[in-house]
Amino acid sequence: MKLYEKTAAELSEMLRNKECSAAEILNDVNERIDKVEDKVGAYVTLNEKAMESAKAVDEAIAKGEKLHPLAGIPIGIKDNISTKGIRTTCSSKMLENYVPPFNATVVDKVNEAGMVITGKMNMDEFAMGSSTETSYIHLTRNPRDLECVPGGSSGGSAAAVAAGEAIVTLGSDTGGSIRQPAALCGVVGMKPTYGSVSRYGLVAFASSLDQIGSFGKSVRDVAMVQSVISGYDKMDATSSYMEKTDYAADLKDSVKGLRVGVPDEYFGDGIDDDAKESVYNAIKTLEANGAEIKKISLPSTEFAINTYYIIASAEASSNLARFDGVKYGYRAKDYDGLIDMYEKTRSEGFGDEVKRRIMLGTFVLSSGFYDAYYKKAKLVQRKISAEFSDAFKECDIIATPTVPSAAFKIGENIGDPLKMYYSDVCTVTVNIAGLPAISMPCGTNSAGMPFGLQFIGNKFAEQTILDAANGYEKICGGFNAIAGTL
Ligand code: GLN
């Protein structure tokens, strides 16, 4: 087995036992990038200083210093997370040449742990999309079928893990952008509780929904990365006070006695039969291994997509006002006065999907429509949250499909925004309620493309969903996260 095929946990063990060096791991990942990146297109920018970081870890090991378990592990960072001195484009023309003067808090934490940043991962422009096709930079392809999308918006982060172009990666999830691509690429991805990971330095899309999380080949890897990136940060006003937790230290691997809620509303008409079947099979497997399955109801789920696209677009229209040609990034070349400069800069700098969100958001916030749309959406948000709270009185986790169907073909949905929005039908409720959720592979369609099983937890119950997911992974005997097709 090549080093890039191993999990972070395995590589960490090998480093500790001096069976390989951090430089060797990075070399192996770099060779893999050389071999497959032309086909996959997971990266926007490679970190030229990666080898320097890897060698620094090797020197520290040689000196006998006590290092973090993830020291020396290659990690890719989604391109909406600020990296000092490394271009951070949000896959937009607007920020094509923007080099941040500071690190996001998660990047500082990753660096402090001695992890090796391989580069910046492709995404949908400003994280708006479900296929990575709205990227201004280039296309990312699904490593399991190059004709298919990797999902989005964190498509580059998911594809890189499945292709072996990074060992773990960071993404962001506003309505499903970690879990959906994780499902479509056949890897593990977790969206943590709102407030558990600092958003300082994450380019804002919808601030009340955005959350940074990670991708890996195994649940343990995701638990290890979550332990690095989570925790209170005074630089983020919505960061929660919480004890520093090591989610990997006592990771359980039994689902015995686990109370699993199964909401009918997530298995409705829009979900493909084979997606339902794989998730039902996974649930039966959990039951056969001692979990207690409970039928539950989350009746407001049917309003979730509408609610999400109102709230997310409203916040996006406000957050993206800052890209005006004055402060950051792109400015139109020819213009006649200030207003014309704003107009041309924003018309030329943003892609169609971003413009659609800004218009939608401005509309729902406008004085004539605020009550009819935005205010109503905020009321439904409370209802969705309350239904989850009630459900968690009788179950530990809620199990649902992550996606309504397996990866679709490149170009198939890009001309039909409503169809694209439907990709998030199983994931947006979690952001609306600020909950943690994890997606892991569970079976494939007839073409061999993976589906995702989603475990949703109560607020700050990351350990519970990680334990449950780890239990499921053990039952499955691992997830074969590396795409064998490349
Ligand atoms: N696909 C959803 C959207 O386009 C979610 C995006 C995300 O989670 N960043 O808004």
Q: How are the elements arranged and paired?
A:
Blueprint: H1 8-16, H2 22-40, E1 43-46, H3 50-62, E2 74-78, H4 105-112, E3 116-121, H5 155-163, E4 168-172, H6 179-185, E5 188-191, E6 212-216, H7 219-229, E7 259-263, H8 273-288, E8 292-296, H9 304-319, H10 338-349, H11 352-365, H12 371-394, E9 397-401, H13 417-422, H14 428-433, E10 437-444, E11 450-457, H15 462-476
Parallel strand pairs: 2-3, 2-4, 7-8, 7-9
Antiparallel strand pairs: 1-3, 4-6, 5-6, 5-10, 9-11, 10-11
Helix pairs in contact: 2-3, 5-6, 7-15, 9-11, 9-12
This protein binds glutamine.
Glutamine binds at residues 127-130, 153, 172-177, 205, 312, 424.
